[in-house]
Fold this protein.
Amino acid sequence: MKKKSITLLAISALLLSSCQNQSQQQAPPPPQLPLIEVETKDITTFSEYPTQLQGIVSSEIRAKVSGYLTKVLVEEGAAVKKDEILFELETRSLSGDASAAKARVNAAQIEVEKLKPLVKKNIVSQNQLETAKAQLETAKSDLKSISANVDYATIKSPVDGFVGTINYRDGALINPTDRLALTRVVKTNKVFAYFSVNEKEYLNMVDQFNKTSEKTSDLLSSFPELILVMSNGKVYDKKGKLTSISSQVNRETGTVRFRATFDNPDLKLKDGLTGRIKIPSYNEDAVVVPRISTFSRQGKSFVFKFNTSDSSVTEKAIDVVRADPYLVIKSGLSEGDKIVGRGVNKIKNNDKIRPTSSTMDSIVNSFDKVFK
């Protein structure tokens, strides 16, 4: 019995040893991945903000009096001059009011003329004449107001520009309180691009771009030229200039409103178009890493930092600004640190690797070739 137990123990030990050897033989070697040394570069980063364009003149055309629209004298997109007639409203009722007002003026004038000699003869009092004169002035004022309303029935353009969407056609009843304007006349040889910047970013811009003066009002002159990316993803071929910064922070959104101006000589940009404003920022000797060397989780960016003591890697959180194909490191890494350059999706925290030497330029160039 004792010999049988010893034999079973020996067999178990042999089986265990065999399984361990087999497991060791099947374990894959650590992945071979390129290491790069974190460097510094002179690089330009960009901050982006959504924007909507507006012509330097954008005037709503509304009726000042009520009436039926009888004539639409322009087409959408047409160029118009200041004081050119755009619309006409029905004026028959207004003309009738004007005729009645003229009659009242004439009657009041006759009454005044009739009373003047009677006052001289002391037949009627001076007060009666003054009352008649006051009634005459009231009648004249009424006539003037009604005549103005007749003129308002002819609706003219207040500015040079281009006609936008025409929201009403012949026969429509028009009121000054209508939700939609008749149309809009815009001037777009230059356009405004409005965008909003939060408080923190605004203060950072003051510190960054206004170094030559203590006055924040001088920020406009020291601000860099702006880039407009249109809604189709293409960059507009002319740079913009920052021309206005709101003097107040919007209390609801916590943002400051900026306005840039872009030349638009060929009228390519239209009132109402959307896009993105890019603000360039030059960084001298900035710590950078290739974007392909990073990964994201829950909105944060990470790299794998290499540990020379045991050839393992450790996740390292980094604060970055995008500057394709690089990321500028604001915190988390220093020049000279070694990180995994490519293949970060193949490993996890504390894994060991077989490092090979590489450079940032080779990693970036390989990334470009893959996506060209």
